[in-house]
User: Fold this.
Amino acid sequence: MVALCSWGLGWRVWSAALLGIGLGLGLLRLTEWAVLAATQPSRLRRNLLTGVFLAKLPVMGLVFYVITQHTELNAGALAGGLGVPLAVALLKLAGQALSPPAPTPNGNATSKETRGHGL
Assistant:
């Protein structure tokens, strides 16, 4: 946000980026809740999850439309801010997949087969 302000971009840009980041974090939290709820063997939960997953994108599109049409916020910054939390999550996952295995106290690297089994 400091970089956006220092480049002379106005409040419309950085406030839209902050709003987009907040919406992106909300989407990640909603997805996390839905995945955790999917592990519960309840028919009501399954129907609720189906509704959540089917309604998530149209509702997000409506929110995006209302924000860009009825405020003076920058649509590009809003879209960019919306993608920031998702990009951070993907980069963290890629970093975990590419990182070498952690060494054990005896100096050997742990393999996937021995992790969590105390071997």
DSSP finds four helices and no strands in the chain. The helical segments are 2-6, 11-38, 43-70, 75-98. The radius of gyration is 20 Å.
